[in-house]
């Protein structure tokens, strides 16, 4: 009886390991099939290319998140160049176009590109302006936002994500997936939206309390 039990535990361990390996392989397959830095004539074409091996909205949004984070670098030149900002920020369409042309952008570019690609495959996404622990100076005024991120609606629920931070904290050319569908109670430790409703918390904390909360990242 003891030998049979040990055998069953061993077999279960092999099955679990094989299942986990298969899931990892499938995840890599989806990522490996994403179009790498491919020029496109339209956002619709690009969105369809990125999501062609997916079926659910969750898979589609994850593929879009991953493609942007692995193909669009952070644009430090744009961040610190007022003249470029004046040119690129004339409209969100201009910002998206420049992000795809130059393969780099800033937080607003990431957010508007994600929203636009999601829209092309029928997924609702919002662009959220606000503050983060890295960008909140001591004399912050609530109407002067410093960062931009997204919320995406999946299975009837809003989920939070930040492609800028996923790119910044990523390793080995892959984004940090902690910043995709991050739990609201974790997101609030580092991000505070201008519209408090986008904390997605039943009992949102105040902005002043946010300033005093110790960030874990």
Automatic annotation (TrEMBL):
Residues in Transglutaminase-like domain copies: 99-165
A GO-annotated cellular component: cytoplasm
Classification via Pfam families: Transglut_core
Gene3D superfamilies in alphabetical order: 3.10.620.30
Record's keyword terms, sorted: Signal
Source organism superkingdom: Bacteria
Coiled coil: none
Signal sequence residues: 1-23
Record's protein name: Transglutaminase-like domain-containing protein
């Amino acid at each position: 009886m003891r030998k049979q039990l040990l055998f069953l535990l061993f077999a279960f361990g092999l099955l679990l390991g094989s299942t986990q390996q298969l899931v990892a392989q499938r995840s890599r397959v989806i990522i490996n099939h994403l179009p790498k830095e491919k020029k496109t004539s339209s956002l619709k074409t690009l969105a369809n290319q990125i999501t062609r091996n997916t079926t659910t909205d969750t898979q589609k949004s994850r593929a879009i998140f991953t493609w942007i984070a692995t193909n669009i670098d952070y644009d430090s030149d744009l961040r610190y160049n007022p003249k470029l900002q004046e040119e690129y920020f004339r409209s969100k369409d201009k910002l998206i176009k420049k992000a795809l042309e130059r393969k780099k952008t800033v937080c607003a570019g990431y957010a508007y590109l994600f929203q636009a690609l999601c829209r092309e495959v029928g997924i609702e996404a919002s662009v959220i302006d606000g503050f983060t622990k890295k960008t909140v100076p001591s004399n912050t005024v609530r109407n002067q936002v410093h960062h931009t991120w997204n919320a995406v609606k999946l299975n009837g629920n809003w989920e939070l994500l930040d492609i800028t931070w996923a790119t910044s904290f990523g390793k080995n050319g892959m984004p940090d997936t902690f910043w995709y569908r991050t739990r609201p109670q974790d997101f609030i430790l580092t991000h505070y939206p201008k519209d408090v409703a986008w904390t997605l918390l039943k009992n949102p904390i105040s902005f002043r309390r946010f300033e005093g909360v110790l960030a874990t990242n």
